[in-house]
Design brief:
The protein is mostly helical and about 70 residues long. About 90% of the residues lie in helices and about 0% in strands. The termini are far apart.
Amino acid sequence: PSESEVKKEGVNIAEIQVKLLQKIEELTLYIIQQDKEIKALKTALNLEDKKGIITLLKDEIFSSFYSIEI
């Protein structure tokens, strides 16, 4: 409510509490969604890091193998 409405009609505390609880619920659900997305991104990033390390190790092994003189 606007300042003028509050001055004229007063404040309906119950209505404000309901609206605040609705906002809290919305924000809680949003945080839960964001947390799931963050976990998924961390998992994907971790997989990419592992793939990158494996590729580097393979390259190192092959380059070492081919540099051995027989």
